[in-house]
What we know:
177 residues, 2 domains
Amino acid sequence: MHRARMGGWALYIATGIGFIALALLSGDPLWMLPIALIAAGYFAGLIKQMRNAAPPGNTSRNEILLTMAIAIAAASATWFINHELGYGALVASGLIGVIAGVTLPHHLAGAAYAASFVGMSANAVLPTMTTAWVAGAIAGIIIVSTGPVFGGIGGKGGTAAAAAVLITSALIFTVGA
């Protein structure tokens, strides 16, 4: 599990590097400063988290599988409510978040809510239920792998969902599906 936690740290470091690259590539001074400030704050928070991080936990295989299943179900259900039922991204994610918050223990509810952000993606990004399922699985892996990183600070769920959708989009592009 320690190796997975290191992968989580690497993902968050790569996100910060992505912020810096975005600032440099934008070329527009109006965007460069705010993005650079976001990146600086991001890295300051990351350094603080690394100093205070708890050692890898003893998460059981069943807990990992349950978290992954919840993430897949939440992403897929949100995608279905958003695209097939036509209620839109906000209503779909909010509904899944409320249901998860009322019915699941807090750590699983958080995973479900974070994964529901995956289902908010546009049809052009995740065109089918299968792609939502894959992105939900990747979000579950990221959520499990990042454990204590940025716990309680905010932004972890959105970052995990965004990374999962980007990875899935890259897979779609590579495979040509």
